[in-house]
Amino acid sequence: MKFYDFTLAPNPRRVRMFMAEKGIALPETIQVNTREREQFADWFQAINARSTVPVLELDDGTRITESVSICRYFEALHPEPSLLGRDAREQALIDMWNRKVEIECFNHVGDALRNGAPMFEGRAIAGYASGMPQIQALAERGRRCFQDFLVGLDHRLATSRFIAGDEFSIADITAVVAIDTAKRVELEIPENLANARRWYDEVSARPSAQA
Fold first, then answer.
1. Who's near 36: CB < 8 A, 6+ residues apart?
2. I need a labelling partner for 123 at 20 to 30 A (CA). Which of 53, 161, 171, 198 fits?
3. What range does the domain containing 8 cover?
């Protein structure tokens, strides 16, 4: 298998953390430098016409291009430790919380970063070779929604060790990657949100967080 990655991009990091939690090491990782627009090179567009990372290429040539879909593939091959749930109830709850984190946090962090950071000028949406202008109002909305999410996260973690329950899951991976990405636009968990800080420190201390 081949894994098309970019170390600085958040979505590939979600997969790397997932693999690290399961002890999966792939034989070949190929870096696609999106800062240098390598994702638009002919060789990579032949891999993924959408021009985004990550991509997992299987031995038979099948290509999986979405981070959670790649994680689901690895979960099926390596069910332990479970990160997507062991039964129907756990699977539904973890999927629910992961989607909440994606919609209420991860996506808004993306808006704040890609519409607000100078390095993304003209590149507000990934995968557009022709470019996409930044919209400052989206950056401001993203920042506000991220801060609102943290308040809700703190409330949730007052009664739960991890986001989806007592066990670490993909929802925690998605959230910690989003929160770390938010630091690029100077967004942090406030000190007064003690439950969220406790969770963040615990998750960040896991070896997989360095993946």
1. none
2. 171
3. 2-77
Q: What is the pLDDT of residues 99-133, one digit of tens each?
A: 999 999 999 999 999 999 999 999 999 999 999 99
Which residue in 187, 169, 189 sits closest to 82, CA to CA? 169
Q: Give the pLDDT confidence of 11-67 residue by residue, as tens digits.
A: 999 999 999 999 999 999 999 999 999 999 999 999 999 999 999 999 999 999 999
Query: Is this structure's pTM higher than 0.85?
Result: yes
Residue 20 within any structural domain of the chain: yes
CATH code, domain carrying 206:
1.20.1050.10
